[in-house]
Amino acid sequence: MSDIARMQKLNLLDNDEKVYRFYSEFGKEVAGNFFSDKRMAKYWIDKKDKTKDEVSFAFYQDIKSIDTVYYAGLAYCPYMLVTKNDSSKFKVCVDGEREEIGAFFEDALTNWRQRKSVK
To answer: In terms of CATH architecture, what is 3-115?
Structure first.
């Protein structure tokens, strides 16, 4: 299954949607964090225990705030904490060199700022 087909099957991507950046900490079949021209999203698919599956997303107009955490401790990736208008939250993780992390964060924030009022 292609990456795009996987995201569509999880209802995280529309046919006309474009993914701008993607990061996976455990292989694309298991985990993914991305932002597109419409939303921010993450998924975790636990092949052994489906109760641990997590699929979360928010369209830009449904996001109240995004907080960036560059240092999340020794065992965790940097992440953006996405808070939706209904106060629910989820994390979009990314790792790599500090410049790569910063570029991912800045691009995501810029996208959100530009698109949050577009319906």
So the answer is: Roll (2.30)
